[in-house]
Write a structure and sequence with these properties.
Blueprint lengths: L1 H15 L3 E10 L8 E4 L14 E2 L5 E8 L2 E8 L6 E2 L9 E5 L3 E7 L1 E2 L16 E10 L4 E8 L13 E4 L18 H10 L6 E5 L6 H4 L13 H19 L9 E6 L1 H12 L6 E5 L8 H8 L6 E8 L6 H13 L4 E8 L6 H16 L5
Parallel strand pairs: 1-8, 12-13, 12-14, 14-15, 15-16, 16-17
Antiparallel strand pairs: 1-4, 2-5, 3-4, 5-7, 6-9, 10-11, 11-13
Helix pairs in contact: 2-8, 6-7
Length: 378
Amino acid sequence: MRKILLFLMIAYSSALMAQYSARFVVTSVATRSNEDIYLSGTFNNWNPQDPQYKLKPFSGGRKSIVLINMAPGTYAFKFSRGQNKQESTADGRDIAERIIEISGDVSNEFVIEGWKDDYPEKPKAFTASPQVKLMDTAFAMPQLNAKRRIWIYLPKSYSGSDKKYPVLYMQDGQNLFNEKTAFAEEWGVDECLDSLQGKGFKECIVVGIDHGGTKRINEYNPYDHFQYGKGMGNEYLQFIAETLKPFIDSKYRTLKGRDYTYLAGSSMGGLISWYGQLKYASVFGGGAIFSPSFWISPQIAVDAQQWDGMDMLRMYFYTGGKEEANAVNDLNKIAGIMQKKKNAQIRTVVNPLAQHSEKYWRQEFASFYIWMSNNWKE
């Protein structure tokens, strides 16, 4: 017995002492690509110019750094060129903290779109199709004591018919239709739907809800977090289900039933789109869960196990093989739990070459839409 206990203690200690390496590779930089680039984050107290964290030249004109002896866990980080020279979006806006989860050796590639002190001057193009309208620039969100820009995509047939349409509610509205407002690049939802519907696929309305900027991670998180603070995901979902959806149903010709009402989003938006289907199963009949941030709380698996709704849920899970270290395992774990529910229709897709970006979500959107629309009765 003592030998068994000793073995278990040694095994447990070894697990706690496990150390891994993480390679960070910058593949391209919008400006000042010849200057030194530093990695700063929770692992070095966010020092923006720590010489021990300076990237070195790598093959193909890239720059990289390898951190060794990293304990398992979740780390936040950004790139910089020194004090007050942090990375930014292509038009100089702040970016959210990048996240990496370490549970094994990992290598990720990154693109720096701009710097706070020097970003590309070329303005981004306005690419939204005529089917996309700004429904409101400051729609009231009483549950969050906030206002938000709301986009709406109406099928080409909408104005010339009395037909009613399913509705897809999507997170991160800035990134869905318009390159000019997108964080990195747009999803191209409008062009995709125009093309599919031109080929005879079913039509739907898409409502895009802008994220809350610096509050994005809180609004899309139903759980409190030791680093990011109070989760406001429940209030955000209450807004969609009890304020926004009734307004859309009253103003537009919609099919109001849950089987014609879906949620979709990516990253933290994927997390809240998944959670929303559990919390409001009588409102939302399914949705797309792209690259969900399932790393953020162990409670996610508990909630998945405990859900035992009577209504059919249809969930389209997707992630990339070159995302965070545990992205595929986390996705398969939650999708696997949901797959065992008697009232769940699950599809799981893993693109082994895909990274965590709009580029790959855009590529997958058509497949999700076709799968989703096949569930709609004429």
